Amino acid sequence: MIRISTLLLLVITISFSASAQRTYVDNGSNSSYTINNGDSLFIKSGTFTGSINSWQQGGKITVAEGASFSPSNFGYFQGTIIVRGQATLPALDGQSARFTISNYGKTTINGKTYLGGNATFVNAYGALLVLKGAVDFNSSNLVNDGVIKAQSTMYMGSSSNLTNNNVIEVSGNLEFNNARISNAGKLYTAGKLTVSGGNFANDCRTVIDNGVEINNGTTFTNNGLFWVTSARNNAVFINSGTFTSTATGRVKSADFENNGTVNGKGYFYFTGTTKINKGNVGTNGTTADTLYVYDVTRLNNNTIFDYQSGNVRKNVVYRAFSAPDTISAYPSCGLAYRSEIILPVKWNYFLVNVANNIPVLTWSSEQDNGTQFEIERSYDGNNFSVIQTMAATTTNNYRYEDKQVNTQAAAVYYRIRAIEPTGAEKLSETRVVRFGNKNGIKVQTTPNPFSSQFSISYQSATRETISIRVLNMAGQVQLTKTAAISTGYNSVTIAEAASLSKGIYLVQLVGQNGIIATERVAKQ
Question: What is the residue-wise DSSP string for 75-102?
């Protein structure tokens, strides 16, 4: 009798366990589900617009490729969701202990995203995650190999971990408080970056549009590009923590203020006011490390920074160098980011000559496959029209003859518009043809914009001595220089431009018969 009772109890237990774990298959409905521990909801096809009343830890939702998950109510969430198709969620706002979301397709969260209690968010390579509301992570993990677009503010608090291997773009302020950040991709914020405590390792590109504060207790290691842009007129980098740069580290900012420690190697490029209020820059004692600093607008040639109240060690060296590359992927960037980055169009040169009263445009550029060139012409320098479209080739060298030009015009302006596969556009410089000069315009200034000096490339049909004048936009001559020009290609370096203030200038080449060409340059 005892054996029969034991067997009966076992059968009942097995039957109860089997019935407790349910698998739901939905082909697009507005049904309501309660997902308990062990339950599964599979959105196989169509669009689900129903309700998830409750979702316990151990429950799972899977959205198949081609299917869409758009619940009207998400309820209390603690389970796991795997998105291979599309998911549009009203919000992730509330306690979410050990909640896990893995996105392989496209997931959009329309409301606030709040994750805590060891939650994990994984955005896979090729996936897109759009966060429309404020983002708040506490004691949670975010791993990104795809693209994340946070359209509001983003905060990661104590014991949170961010691993970014591709692209994260934040429209508002970005704040880390005692978090651990590993960035091997592009981490960008249009707002302000604040890092308070924790560890931040930048191996690729961290780009900030509205200033940055690294506060006391923060350990920041820079192996890539750390760029505080001037997009919102607040290009200030304030360090009160410990900022360590490696040999591959590059820092670019207008203003810099140090109240903490800066050490290691690498390059620091500034274009505004630099202050060492207190703390240390460099390493005390003997070291093989060298920190190179270039303050383009340095006030005092006897100091490295504009204002120095703290300690600037002997291994900190002032040296002029080119602005850091803010476009390309750095060698220390992760594979996911380096495989995704699209190289922007790079203009090598663009010249316009006149042969038999026909303007001949020649240019060389580097670009991705699929780029289109639009050749534009103007008779007033303001209103341009497209006269020809050309596809990019593997030779990277191009030529076009404008046989339809009105040669009676006093001046004709040309430019090239490159349209990349992504839709991004990049214009060349504008060239001018004056038909009174049958040799055409054969001048190019590089780099443009420049930071200290620039060079003029000039192709001349004759030998002569020319005068080079640099004027401000009010027409006032800022500097002059003479140069002996030979027949053919010439290059003249204008080192005197280092004394110019930041701004826009006109460069005129004047020969024996008057002005040969006028080019516009910008000093940054």
Answer: -EE-SEEEESSEEEES-B-S--TT-EEE
Would you say the pTM of this structure is higher than 0.85? no
Pairing of strands 174-177, 135-137: unpaired
449/403 same-domain check = no
Using DSSP bridges, classify how beta strands 385-391 and 372-378 pair: parallel, antiparallel or unpaired: antiparallel
Q: Residue 58 is encoded by which pair of tokens? A: 């151990």
Task: Give the tokens for residue 174.
Answer: 């970005």
On whether residue 14 sits in a domain, the answer given is: no
Q: Which CATH number is 407's domain given?
A: 2.60.40.10
pLDDT digits (tens, 9 = 90+) for 351-383: 888 888 789 999 988 877 778 999 999 887 778
Looking at residue 289, its amino acid is D
In this structure, the answer to whether residues 373 and 279 fall within a common structural domain is no
**Burial classification of residue 307, based on how many CB atoms lie within 10 Å of its CB (0-12 exposed, 13-18 middle, 19 or more buried):** middle
pLDDT digits (tens, 9 = 90+) for 53-90: 888 888 999 999 999 999 998 777 788 999 999 999 98
User: Encoding tokens for residue 299?
Assistant: 């006030």
Structure tokens at 19: 């019935």
Domain range for 294 is 153-340
Task: Examine the domain organization and report whether 198 and 235 are in the same domain.
Answer: yes
With respect to residue 5, please indicate whether it lies within any of the assigned structural domains.
Answer: no
Do 290 and 197 belong together in one domain? Answer: yes
Query: How many structural domains compose the chain?
Result: 4
Q: Dig out the tokens for 510 from the structure.
A: 């004047």
Residue 9, in any domain of the structure: no
What CA–CA distances, in Å, run from 27 to 50, 69, 232, 303, 442? Answer: 12, 10, 48, 71, 66
